[in-house]
Amino acid sequence: MSVNVTMPALSPTMTEGTVAKWLIAVGETVHSGDVIAEIETDKATMEVESIEDGVVAHILVEAGSENVAVGTVIAILAEAGEAVDAISATPVTAVADEAPAAPANTPAETPIAVAQTSVTQTGMAQTAVAQKSMSETSKRIFATPLARRIAANKGIALDGLTGSGPHGRILRRDVEAAPAAPAVQITPASANAMSSSAAAGASELVANSQMRQVIASRLQQSKQQAPHFYVTVDCQIDTLLAARRALNEKAPDGVKISLNDLVIRATAMALMAVPDANVAYEDTHTRRFQHADICMAVAIDGGLVTPVIWAAETMGLAALSQTTADLASRARQGQLRAAEYTGGSFTISNLGMFGVREFAAVINPPQGAILAVGAGEQRPVVVDGALTVATVMTVTLSADHRAIDGAVAAQWLQSFKGFVENPVTMLL
Question: What is the DSSP letter of 235?
Answer without folding.
Answer: E
